[in-house]
Design brief:
- It is a single chain.
- By secondary structure, the chain is an alpha/beta fold.
- Helices cover 36% and strands 27% of the residues.
- It has helices at residues 32-42, 56-72, 86-95, 104-108, 111-120, 154-164, 185-191, 207-213, 226-229, 235-244; strands at residues 5-13, 16-21, 24-30, 47-51, 77-80, 99-102, 125-133, 139-143, 148-153, 168-173, 198-201, 221-224.
- It has an eight-stranded parallel beta barrel, surrounded by six helices.
- β11 (198-201), α8 and β12 form a beta-alpha-beta unit.
- The radius of gyration is 17 Å and the shape is globular.
Length: 253
């Protein structure tokens, strides 16, 4: 079994790391490169940087930031947020990102997955999927930060994304995100049948929750933001819990 990965996520606005709730009440929490270095030192396996500026000016700033991160951080990192064209993806990968993450744009134009994969390779493409379980028990894909419900079904869309060339799936349950009550483990078990890695996001409240979703047959990696940013949990605590359960992971510093 491959080592499980722990991935802090940093939201970036105008070149600075920010944190808030649903992108509101944002507070500056530091330089993205310095925070990335800190997480790397603490044992993070990868990082994700999300551009939440969603503006032309923010795009330019973000490309410059990606170059600084590539020079200053010694672990792989993924970038996402507002990537809607091959040109957007190319500018970020060419600046030094290891992978790019696409979400709403991939739902609107699935061929975008294929275009990026053909240009750079599947290993560079992460397809992020936000989905909500309705009263009928069907998981339907949402876009635009979970605010727009689509008719796409989670598992069929994940399979299509895989077939089109995605190298990883990053799944967030909108029912669980922000609750701190754990993950929908049955969903990750089903997604675990895909031939590509699955990253779990949203719902973790403690190290046990993360260990649960990284158990054999479920997710390959766990992404988290606020629990690390607010100091509720450290990467070391998560990895010690994984070790206690016999789940393989790289050692924390």
């Amino acid at each position: 079994m491959l080592a499980k990965r722990i991935i802090p996520c940093l939201d970036v606005k105008d070149g600075r790391t920010v944190k808030g709730i649903n992108f509101e009440g944002l507070r500056d929490v530091g330089d993205p490169v310095e925070l990335g270095r800190r997480y790397a030192k603490e044992g993070a396996d990868e990082l994700v940087y999300l551009d939440i500026s969603a503006s032309k000016e923010g795009r330019s700033t973000f490309v410059d930031l990606v170059g600084r991160v590539a020079e200053g951080v010694n672990i792989p990192f993924t970038v996402g947020g507002g990537i809607s064209t091959l040109q957007h993806a190319s500018s970020l990968l060419d600046a030094g990102a290891d992978k790019i993450s696409i979400n709403s744009a991939a739902v609107a134009d699935p061929e975008l997955i294929s275009e990026i994969a053909k240009r750079y390779g599947s290993q560079f493409v992460v397809v992020a999927i936000d989905a909500r379980c309705g009263e009928d028990g069907v998981w339907r894909v949402t876009t635009h930060g979970g605010s727009r419900l689509t008719e796409r079904e989670l598992f069929s869309w994940a399979r299509e994304a895989c077939d089109r060339g995605a190298g990883e799936i990053l799944f967030t349950s909108m029912n669980h995100d922000g609750t701190g009550c754990g993950y929908p483990l049955d969903v990750y078990e089903k997604l675990g049948s895909l031939p590509i890695p699955v990253i779990a996001s949203g719902g973790a409240g403690n190290a046990s929750h993360i260990a649960d979703v990284l158990a054999p047959g479920r997710a390959d990696a766990a992404l988290a933001a606020s629990i690390f940013h607010y100091g509720k949990l450290t990467i070391g605590e998560v990895k010690r819990e994984l070790a206690r359960r016999g789940i393989p992971a790289r050692s924390a510093m």
